[in-house]
Structure formats: structure tokens, C-alpha cells
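Chapter review: from sequence to fold.
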Amino acid sequence: MMGGGTAVDFSPLLPWAALIPLFALAAAGILVALVRRARGTAWRALGLAALALALLNPALVQEDREPIRDVAVLVVDESPSQNIGERRARTERALADLQERLSRFPDLEVRIVRTGGAEGGVGGAIEETRLFEVLDNAMADLPRRRMAGAVFITDGQVHDVPGGGKGLEDLGPIHTLLTGEHDEADRRLAVVRAPSFGLVGRPVTVTVRVEDMPGSQSPDAVVNIRQDGGAPRPFRVPVGRDVPLEFNLEHGGQNVLEMEVAAAPQELTLANNRAAVVISGVRDRLRVLLVSGEPHAGERTWRNLLKADPGVDLVHFTILRPPEKQDGTPIRELSLIAFPIRELFEIKLDEFDLIIFDRYRRRGVLPQLYLSNIASYVENGGALLEAGGPTFSTAMSLFRTPLGAVLPGEPTGEVIERPFKPSVTELGRRHPVTAGLPGDVPAGAPQGQEPSWGRWFRQTDVTPLQGSVVMEGADQRPLMILNRVGEGRVAQIASDQIWLWSRGYEGGGPQAELLRRLAHWLMKEPELEENDLRAKVEGNRITIERRSLEPDPRSVELTSPSDEVRGVDLVEDGNGLATAAVLATEPGIYRVSDGERTALAVVGAVNPPELADVRTTGEPMAPAARASGGGVHWLADGDVDVRRTRPDRDQTGSNWIGLRANGDYVVTGVSEASLLPAGLVVLLVVGALLAAWRREGR
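The C-alpha cell string follows.
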């Protein structure tokens, strides 16, 4: 719609620097004439005025104007707290009503933005509601003079309101329509203090607090706590007080504590009745017992590798002088340390995390009873690594002792002594200990391509009785076998030449990485589990990983904090790892299950602001309303009318909200007409001078 405007414009014919002295001189002359009471002064003044007006060159200017539509922004809160009760439905009804009412104003443009969801809308934050950030994005291309105002449809839990409403004065009125009910009550569980890591086997303390809002609904409450998805343990805690709870970390890596408080008589949501803490378990020191049966080239490699790790407490014995050696050397001349057999293999055996036998053979040093103790130690949860030399194929082999019950490979009696390159088996490419080793043949490589690492020259031939063969040597014979025995684990390397890799022979090989993974697998570190389901969290993205030794086409079930269940398909990479990524739409504990295993993912902060207080309130938005002239209204009290208002008038009332009518426009055309034509000016000036002359002549 086009409009117009009329105004008088002056375009002086001379610069003001010249006009002002002339006007002053004329005014002085008229003033002198008035003082002397000279005849014809009025006519002279009229002539000079006409001449002065002509010099100012007045013109009538007519503008063709096109009005600019104002813009109103409707900000819709879609944060998780909006799912409570009737808030979501009330929000959509209010939005539809506003759209219908605002469509009646032809000079108003309406923009609708949504926030709070992870997958849609402008905002993706799920830990807190950031409505003003979304409003800023919606107005990024608008000059402030076009802003009619903004309407927030929310439960009032907004976490980015500018302090004191600063900077909101020129945005137009900011109104808030609250979607909840008056006098709501709720209970929540908060984690006051929790460590980020702790020592395995040592207690850690987590301090929790149960809060009833607005007031206590009961004197105490029951908090059920699960550790890594285990059976719940109930704790009765007082409401409104900090309560320390103590737990033992059972393993290294991620330990998840799930906590849930029983519902109160009045509850808005149970989402904030749950909390989770992720504590990284670290081992104080890894106690390793290394027993070398005899000095050899690889002994120093084992020792250097283990001593280089500051987290390893190594006890190393090398058997230099077996009991059967009788060479007549006087006892006083022997400087060897007696092997503390009883202390190591009877009294303190359970204190070791890993026992390594390096080229050990039966020589009467360890009685059968102590070897039987080691077998029991493994079955009860210990870890054993056996790296055998040529004597493993003889009658002096450890396999001919009680340890044979836990060793996965039986010697055939043959020792292969020719060059070969260790290779990872098909099963080994799916096992986390050997999958993706540096230098190995990549997946999809041409048939016959060999690893880039160096060769070994000796291997003991063994027959695998149980366990998983993850590496092969000469003629595809088993080189490394991994097995679970009872509660413990055993690894067997059928060669004593892994040290060639550490020496860099023919380019070396990934000895350090292989043995590091092997030790972690033996120590039951979660990241090295060969059949495992894990969930990792980065921001609001959950990455689901399932590792398995056999292809597994099954999908997994993802359960959200609000108990919504959905299926997720995993994509296999061909190396035993299947993955999928999903976006979390709310903070809290997500549970992933494939029917056999369960993994937990904790999304968001320990105490996310979004769930800290889910009651509907107008207090957070009150500063914005005061600074901008807007209002806060409850949808539960009835419909709210919408009006267009002048900038200098009130913008809100008891049951209505106003959107500012700025009246801005753009000029599309201009026409100009002079108010004093030249002929008229000459006529006025000459006429006035003649009249003055005539008056003076009388």
C-alpha cells in the first residue's frame, strides 16, 4: 500500500554565510526606521521580507512512501521440560492462536523459531534452554527499527536471559506466555560432589541431595543406586540435606553409578529423580611378577618394556643357578639372591595383577604345589602370560605341570627354526588385542600382501586346545593364543623372539603396542573386551560400538531417560567393530542393549540446568519484560489478546499483549513545486517599494 507525505523544504540561493549578514543588515535598517518613526517603514519591511523569502527559495515537497512491515518473532520452547503435562499441547494451541490473530495485521511479518531440540529447530542444546540466543539468530538480518516485539511460549525456565534485561530496550516488547500450571511441586535428586576418577579397589565418596520444591513433602526418601548396571542398592537419606555415599570401584575405565530417588506424592516429572556419575577407574600400580627361566637376548626387552611404564611395579627374577647345578663353588663366594619362593607363590601371590613366565622350564626351582597355586590364582581371576622357548616342546615344559590345566596350547614336540613373518588371523582381525596393529595388512588389501614388520626365526609348534588363535607363524601354525579360564585370563606366545621387533630388526614391529594391549586385555580393561557393547558421549551425540568375534547383524535398543525405546541399526566395519551414532534429545541416562549386554551413556552435566527446577515460573523472564515493556502471562488463565500499539503507549495489560507499530517506510518518489515563483517575488518587492515611496511623498 502506497502512502504520501507533504513538507516545505528550503533551498537557499546563497550560502548562509552570505545570507545571515544580509538579513542582519536589513533587520537593522528596519529597526532604525521604526525608531525614527519613518513613513513607509511597514512597506519597506514587507518588501525586504519578500526578498528574504525569495532568497530562501521555499518549495513544497510531496513524497511517495511505501510502508515497511514490522517483524514479530514467536519463539517456541521445545526443551525437554516442555514435555511435562499439558505444556506441549498448550504451546501448540497458543502458537496456532497467535498465528491466526497476527495474520489480521497486514503491516506485520511473523517469524516462528523453535529451540531446545537436538535434531531440529535453531538450537541444539539439551542441557539448558537458550531462547535469547535463538531470538538473536532470528533477528540477525533485521534493523532494530523494524522490530515489533517478540513472544516467548515457554515454561519460563530460560537460562540465557541478559542480566537485568540489558540490551533489550530497542527490540520492542518481549512477552512471555507460560505453558504450565500455578503452584507446581516436584522432587529432584542432585549430585553435590563426585570425583572424576578413583583408584580401582579403593572407596570413593559421592555426595547427593534430595530436594523437594517448593517445600519438603516427606522427611526422608529412598535412593536406589546401581553400579555398572548391577542390582540396585537402597539407601534411605533425609530430604534437604547433603548425604555422602561410599562405593568401591571394581574395574578400570568407565564406572557408571546410576541413582534414582523414589517418587514424591507430588511429581511433575521423574526425569530429574535420576542422576548418573561417571568415574574413571585407574589402577594405583600394576604389580607384575616376571620370572625368566634363563638369561637370553629377549630378557632385557621384557624388563625394559615393563620398567618404562611408571604405573608398573615390577618384580623380576632370572634363574641363573638351578638347584641341580653342582660345581663346587663355596657358598661364601656366591653373590646370588635366594629365590623367595614361599613369599611370592604362597603368601603374596594374590597381590600380583599379572604373572609372566619367560622361557621358563621345570628345573626344580618351583615345586608342583606352587605351580598349582598359580593355576588356582588364574581360575580365581588372575592373569598369566607364558612366552615359551624351545624347552616348551620338551619334557621340561610348563605344560607338564599343574599349569597345563590353564594353558590353551599343547606342545607337539616340534620346534620350527626358519624365518617367518607373524600374521594376524581372521579371528585376530576382529579381536581388540590384534585388530589394526600398526604395520598389519589393511582390510580389503590384495590377497597375498604381507605385513610390513620384520621376521622371526623360531617357533614352538602347539596344538590349540581352547581359546582364540589371534596370530599365526610359520605354516599358519598358532603363534599367539588367548583364553579365559574361570574368572581369569591366559595368553600364550609360542615363540621367544618377539624381542626382534623391539631391536628394529628388518624394520621391527609393533611389540610395545601389542604387549600393551595384551596386558590390558589380561587385566580385563573394558576397552579391550573382545565381545562388548559400549556407548560413548560427545556433546549430545551418542556413539554406540559393539565389538564381537563373530558377525552380529542384530540391532540394538536405545532407551532414553524418559523411557522411550527405539531400535538402532549398527554398521559393521569388517574388523569386528559395528558402530552407529544417534543424537540425544534430552539429558540423562541412556541405556543401550542388544539382548545380552547393556551399556550406559550419560548425556549432559551431572546436574543439568534444564532439570534443576522444572516448575513453571515467570521469574527468569521478568527482567526482560521490565526492560522492554513486555508482560508475563499464564496460558492457564485464559486466552491472551494481541494488539498493535504506538511506541509511546503501554505494551501489555491484564489479558492482552501489544506489538509495537513503528510506522517505518521507504520513499519511492519525490515531486517538488516552488512556493514563490519569480514573477510573484518581483511583483511583491516592486509593489512594496512603490507603496513605501508613495507613503513617504505625502
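Two observations follow directly from the output. The first strand starts at residue 3 and ends at 10. The radius of gyration is 44 Å.
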